[in-house]
């Protein structure tokens, strides 16, 4: 458990207070599951702080996140009804993005991914949320659908104190470079190695 | 993302259906944060299935999980009021265990940890919960407070379909051996390396 004692003090011209209060950019990468799961675990803490949460899923199928989505939608509704916790928005590329209001239109995946990033970039500029989950965002970057340098620049320049968690295998080096926190999930053992299939409530 | 295709079929006398429906024992270990966070992320999926969740925190201070606890208590209350999701129990060793009703009594940590395990063992035998989080449970095992072989035997023999997630650094080899799923969280980069202190909403 971290003891709150930094090993070194950086020469970045910021006071400890300023460093303490800047937004964190976290990257969860590696071959093993747990990347998104841990991001949604972090979002629980953000919710409890009353922060505005924006989730953006860069995957075609949302099958693997239905449990998290249902729980966060419930927490978001709880916030609207009682004021407890923070508001939650959940957007899925696979359903044409909730904010885009053009679900079902024929558009290729690369264009949809770019639309998603353009929206996130706008939200970062206007400080719409306090905590962003860009789920499986490493893939459109890896596939060249979205320009990594543009993403890095927008993340670097984001104003205020906006926290961003990006998940997915093979995070690009430039993204790892700009991140504050990078965790790699490594497989030690997986039930599928022993012939077990995925199951409801555990995998999704 | 797993495609649901096992690489091998084990010679354990179980049908695919039986294997699919047995409880999973997961261990989240490694030096990096994300172990407990991912466990609570999994618990979101369990909640959404309507499963009974039991969380047991084997830590003295609960400071680092207040966000998760508040969110899960809210989800548990939501279940009680509306029937959505599943029931949630949250027990902390540092406060004398909620079920023990002897908070504040002078008892050493090893004895408290053993009391906690004895209760979990009873609950496993009577199938009280569907999903258990034994948070930071590797430590009392490592420190010799609780017998690893006894734990392994109880986990092996647990009836029905009870899922168990155990977190903490340096999980004992015997526990890794019996686990179905083992994830190691590896540090690539951490903000404290760059002189940043922990902050509210991110670390706790």
From TrEMBL, chains A, B:
Single GO term (MF): ATP binding
Pfam families, A to Z: CobA_CobO_BtuR
NCBIfam families: cobA, PRK05986.1
Organism superkingdom: Bacteria
GO terms classed as biological process: cobalamin biosynthetic process
Species classification: Bacteria, Bacillati, Actinomycetota, Actinomycetes, Pseudonocardiales
Entry-linked SUPFAM superfamilies: P-loop containing nucleoside triphosphate hydrolases
Disordered, as annotated region: 1-21
InterPro entries, A to Z: CblAdoTrfase_CobA (IPR003724), P-loop_NTPase (IPR027417)
PANTHER family referenced in this protein's UniProt entry, alphabetically: CORRINOID ADENOSYLTRANSFERASE (PTHR46638:SF1)
Name recorded for this polypeptide: Cob(I)alamin adenosyltransferase
């Amino acid at each position: 458990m971290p003891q709150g004692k930094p090993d070194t003090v950086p020469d970045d011209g910021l006071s400890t207070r300023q460093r303490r209060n800047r937004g964190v950019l976290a990257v969860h990468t590696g071959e093993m599951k747990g990347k998104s799961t841990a991001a949604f675990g972090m979002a629980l803490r953000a919710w409890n702080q009353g922060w505005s949460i924006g989730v953006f899923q860069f995957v075609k199928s949302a099958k693997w996140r239905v449990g998290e989505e249902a729980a966060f939608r419930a927490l978001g509704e709880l916030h609207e009804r009682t004021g407890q916790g923070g508001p939650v928005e959940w957007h899925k590329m696979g359903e044409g993005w909730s904010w885009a209001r053009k679900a079902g239109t024929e558009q290729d995946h690369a264009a949809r991914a770019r639309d998603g990033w353009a929206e996130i970039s706008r939200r970062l500029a206007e400080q719409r949320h306090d905590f962003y989950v860009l789920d499986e965002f490493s893939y459109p970057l890896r596939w060249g659908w979205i320009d990594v340098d543009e993403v890095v620049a927008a993340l670097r320049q984001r104003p205020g104190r906006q926290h961003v968690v990006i998940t997915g295998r093979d995070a690009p080096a430039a993204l790892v470079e700009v991140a504050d926190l990078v965790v790699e999930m490594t497989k030690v053992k997986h039930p599928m190695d022993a012939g077990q299939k995925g199951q409801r409530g555990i995998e999704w």
